[in-house]
Amino acid sequence: MTLVSAPPRFAIRATPIGMFGVAWGEDGILRTWLHGRTDPATRAEILRAFPDGVETEPPGAISEAMKAVAALLGGEKPDLRGATLDMAGVPEFYRRVYGVAREIAPGETMTYGAIAKAMGEEPMQAREVGVALSRNPFAPIVPCHRVVAAGGNLGGYSAPGGTSTKRRLLEIEGAEIVAPAGQQALFD
To answer: How confident is the model at residue 167 (pLDDT cuts 50, 70, 90)?
Structure first.
């Protein structure tokens, strides 16, 4: 007997900085999309990832997560750690990285190396932490924008808009990063 699971469902909502899309399945959120694109462009992007996706009103927990993301992007500081993420296809190392990143509070930052250290990995794993975060399918629920390079540098950001988007998200959250002497501070 073959079990057939329901196709992924998805919803799109406007936020203070643009459209936010969420696809979910029976075990939680499968993926998110955060960018300033239009509703039709966001829908098309979701359907490229999930061709059998069905647009529908989100159930309670998904709706609450979407509201919390909109609040975050509006300058509030909701706790998104309770959002259930379906990490069935996510490598174990990435899951661990995402778990540490989810503990970073809005307005706070952590370096790639500090995440590696918190995971009990050698400091040389900072690069692998960066790779895991560059492939984060759950932004900003997994707040990869709160992870910065050593020395007060912004580091990379793979979402649409790149580091400009990362900078904007950190500014919305009120993050302050002080660069070491002789280096430019993040928001100077």
So the answer is: confident
Residue 49 known to be catalytic: no
Helix spans in 59-142 (H): 60-73, 92-101, 112-118, 126-134
| Residue whose token pair is 């966001």 | 42
53 bridge partner residues: none
pTM above 0.70, yes or no: yes
Per-residue pLDDT tens digits for 10-23:
999 999 888 999 99
pLDDT(42) > 60: yes
- Out of 19, 85, 144, 175, pick the active-site residue: 144
Q: What is the DSSP string of 86-110?
A: --TTS-HHHHHHHHHHTTSPTT--E
What structural domains and CATH numbers belong to the chain?
9-73 (3.30.160), 92-173 (1.10.10.10)
Phi, psi (deg, nearest 5) at residue 104? -75, 120
Residue reference for tokens 């979407």: 66
